[in-house]
Amino acid sequence: MKVSLASAMGTCFGVQDAINLAMSPEFNNELTIVGQLVHNPQVSDSLKQNGVSLVPGIEDIDKIKTKKVMITAHGAAEKTKQQLHDAGFIVFDASCPLVMRVHQTIKSLVSKGYFPVVIGQKDHVEVKGIVGDLDDHLVINSEEDFSKIEKSGNRKLGIVTQTTQQRDKVEALVEKIRALDYVDEVSFVNTICQPTHDRQVAVHELADQVDLMIVIGGYNSSNTKKLVHVCGEKGIEAHHIESFDQLDKNWFVSKQHVGITAGTSTPENVINEVHTKILEIAEEIEGQVSLTS
Ligand code: SF4
Fold first, then answer.
1. Which of the residues 8, 84, 130, 148 could staple to 202 if both were Cys, CB 3.0 to 4.6 A apart?
2. CA distance 48 to 148
3. Which atom of ligand 1 is nearest to the CA of 96?
4. Beta partners for 240?
5. Which domain range does residue 212 map to?
6. pLDDT tens across 91-112, in order?
7. Model confidence over 50-85: pLDDT tens digits?
């Protein structure tokens, strides 16, 4: 059984920079992260072990016990940051620059007279941050949401995407929006981030070669779920796991070529553990095959 790693996978620079900042010794157990820094349980655990406190979001401001707080890599609305400043906190901003680019892009579209539309998941923290400073907006995730556009009565749309969206899905949705008879004009800026794009391209390439894909990442990680989705579209068996101990030997029986990929918040050590365990399983299965043949 051959085992291959995707050519691009795992922690992106935005997530890594945010983790490095949160782990910085200068905080000395005096930091609270507002919102999940990354969608990865192992990273969240290791932050807690380093004395970093976590609260789910700005609505938990009353539970913050430290003077210093950090905004996550997913970004936050300016008004959220202001609320923290006004409450007397020292705010450290770990927003990824590629998320901030989306904030700037949508504000620029609004200033040019376009009604703001985000393609993404309306409850995702990144999307909440993108739209948090806007007077009005729409979030679209599928064709079923097109009725929202019609109801809004807005005919000139400025569209951006959540950074972790799938390019094919986004492009297809934008084309369909352009064709709606109740839409006059669309200005679309593709704001999918490069690391996400690279991981999607890599999983496509690897999925063409393997008969099983192991996808590593937090169960609530949007970009990890999309990697699984790509495999499903290609008809490849894929299993989404968070750590090596979730691997099931039965998945590998009779498989010729196994691929490994990981979302943008999966640390290298977690990938290495999974890789090592799969190599062990492969050796075990091959040993059993040679004994019975
Ligand atoms: S996934 Fe993209 S936008 Fe999000 S933190 Fe990583 S590089 Fe930044």
1. 8
2. 41
3. 8
4. 215
5. 2-9+194-292
6. 999 999 999 999 999 999 999 9
7. 899 999 888 999 999 999 999 999 999 999 999 999
193 pocket-lining for ligand 1 (C-beta < 6 Å): yes
d(CA 207, ligand 1 centre) in Å = 23
Judge whether residue 290 has pLDDT over 70.
no
Report the CATH number that the domain containing residue 198 is assigned in CATH. 3.40.1010.20
Nearest to 194 by CA among 230, 233, 223: 223
**DSSP 8-state class, residue 89:** P
| 133-183: pLDDT as tens digits | 999 999 999 999 999 999 999 999 999 999 989 898 999 999 999 999 999
In degrees and rounded to multiples of 5, residue 159 shows phi and psi of -115, 135
Which residue, by CA, sits nearest to atom 8 of ligand 1?
A: 14
Task: Dump strand ranges (E) for 62-128.
Answer: 68-71, 90-93, 115-119
The pTM is what?
A: 0.87
Last residue of a domain, one of 188, 210, 241: 188
Could you confirm whether 126 is annotated as catalytic? yes
The predicted structure's pLDDT at residue 292: 57
